[in-house]
Every structure is written in C-alpha cells, then in structure tokens.
Design goal:
mainly alpha; 10 helices
C-alpha cells in the first residue's frame, strides 16, 4: 500500500487542494448542469446530479491513471465522437425538459435521485474536455522520483473528484431550494433549465 505523504508531500497536496477547490468553485459545465437539474427537480435531485457528475469524473481519473485517456486524447476522431454523443444527450435533455410541465398530484416530479445521478454521470462521462483537463492538470502535481505516477494521479484525481462532487452537489441543492420556493412557476423553471441544457449542448459540440 502506498504512503500518501510519500507519494505527495503535504505542501504539494495543499497546493493541489487549493487549486482544485478554486477550480470547482468556478461555475462551469458541471455546476450549470447540476443547477439546471436542481431548478427543475428540487434540492434532492440537484444534489444527486452533483454526485453523478463526481462519479463520472472518477471514471476519467481511472482512465488517466492507466493511460487510456492519453490514448483517447491522441485520436481526434474518438474525441469528436464523444463530444457529439455528449452534445446529443444534452440536447435531448433540453427538449424533454422544455416540454415538461409543472408537477401535479397525478404526475409527480420526473426525476428520482437515481435518475439524476445517472444523468450527471453520463453528462460528465461524455464530455471529452474532462479527459483533456485531467491530463493537463493532474500531472503538474506528480513527480516520478516520488513513486509510480499512475498512483499519484489516482490519489490526486480521487481527491479532486470528491471535492468537486461535494461542491457541485451543493450548487445543485441550493438551486433546488430556490426552485422549490418558486414551485408555482415550475414551467418557467423547466424552460430555464432547458435553455441551460441547450446552451451546454451547443458549447460542447462547438468545442468551447
């Protein structure tokens, strides 16, 4: 078993955590997604979407640690296919959310926590930018002299994903509370969420 502080000195770990938390606090695609889910489904589903995003990030970290992400990143066709698949999925979410009305007694809210987790997971997993970001960010805090680089990437990625999961889930839950306070205007909130999903789809396909 690897010693955390042998592989990653406390000073490096502190710098990494500070940088990672700052990046996660900056509203990006993941935060916008969890916010949209929270607005449309309430704090529970908003938080669940953030958890799903974190789980998707963990998959990217595992791929990076075993080298598969580097292989994918060197094949533009693979990245393009992933980008278009992610864009299509977000566009589908946008259309479905736009068409949804307010929940009623005979038609409860559409998303369960499990469904929100699944959506967050797929949204993150189908975003090739996450692959490229992990490959660019995590290795900056590794050093082959300290031990296996794959183990360092795995540990750093785990910490980054867990902090990101907590922050994104908090954003989603907060948006859900705002949405719950405006539940009588749920149709408006659904359309606002649909616009966010649509914007994310366009941004992903455009590669921005």
């Amino acid at each position: 078993m690897f010693d955390l502080f042998t592989l990653i000195p406390p000073s490096t770990l502190a710098a990494f955590l500070a940088a990672g938390i700052a990046l996660n606090l900056t509203p990006g695609a993941d935060v916008m997604f969890a916010t949209a889910v929270g607005l449309g489904g309430g704090p529970r589903t908003g938080a669940a979407a953030g958890i799903g995003v974190g789980l998707g990030s963990l998959v990217h970290v595992i791929l990076a640690s075993v080298g598969l992400a580097a292989v994918i990143a060197t094949h533009p066709s693979a990245l393009t296919a992933i980008r278009w698949a992610g864009g299509a999925y977000l566009a589908w979410l946008a259309i479905r959310t736009w068409r949804a009305g307010a929940p009623t007694a005979d038609r409860p809210r559409r998303l369960t926590a499990a469904q929100a987790i699944a959506q967050g997971f797929l949204t993150n997993l189908l975003n090739p930018k996450v692959i490229l970001f992990i490959l660019a960010f995590l290795p900056q805090f590794t050093d082959p002299a300290r031990g296996p680089v794959w183990a360092q990437i795995l540990i750093l990625g785990l910490l980054f994903s867990l902090t990101g999961m907590a922050i994104t889930a908090t954003y989603g839950a907060f948006a859900g509370r705002m949405g719950a306070a405006l539940s009588r205007r749920m149709s408006i909130l659904n359309r606002a969420a649909a616009v966010i999903f649509g914007g994310l789809a366009l941004r992903l396909v455009a590669g921005k």
